[in-house]
């Protein structure tokens, strides 16, 4: 599935929550995540801004643990990031790890994140707060299928499209001198 994705960094989390709430956004996720990023030993996926991932989600809304096995591939990074994403729920993390390893993939990194997600105007709006050792600032990720919907939500949140970026979180961290040399892509 293709999605348009953009980020807004250095957000005021409480202000965003208030705007979303006052505009009737539906809270669809409250979760703690562990994102295990896999690639081949030579880093060929990450070097092309793609990856394989196993995400462990502690779903606070439904009080359960869910495992997702995902591959992502960057299709375009012009005005918006366009990704091809393939994802499925797996019931056994070890089995997912085994599948990736049997394909020759190795664990490259593991990151922890708190995520709150909302649905509004056919957009998924996600507040991400990462482990400070990885990314010390909160940001929004907005995903949708059309530029018009994206612009509507960005404006509603008090921003302009010029405030958004298609850069990966790693690109943003590198610009700020916070880049971990082991991280290459997403």
Plain-language structure description:
This protein has one domain: Beta Barrel (Hypothetical Protein Pfu-838710-001). The chain is built from 5 helices and 8 strands; from the N terminus they run βαβαβββαβββαα. It has helices at 13-22, 44-47, 93-102, 147-156, 169-175; strands at 2-9, 26-40, 51-59, 64-77, 81-90, 105-120, 123-130, 139-144. The chain has an 8-stranded antiparallel beta barrel with strand order 1-5-4-3-2-6-7-8. Strand 3 and strand 4 form a beta hairpin. 26% of the residues are buried.
Provide a quick synopsis of the model:
Residues 1-175 form the CYTH domain. The chain is of the alpha+beta class and 186 residues long.
| Proportion of helical residues | 10-25%
Q: For the largest beta sheet, what order do the strands appear in spatially? A: 1-5-4-3-2-6-7-8
Distance between the termini: 17 Å
Radius of gyration: 16 Å
How many domain modules? 1
Q: What string, H for helix and E for strand, traces the elements in order?
A: EHEHEEEHEEEHH
Shape: globular
What's the CATH topology label?
A: Hypothetical Protein Pfu-838710-001
Number of alpha- plus pi-helical segments: 5
Helix/strand/pairing category = alpha+beta
Strand content: over 45%
Low confidence ranges? none
What's the pLDDT, averaged over the residues?
A: 92
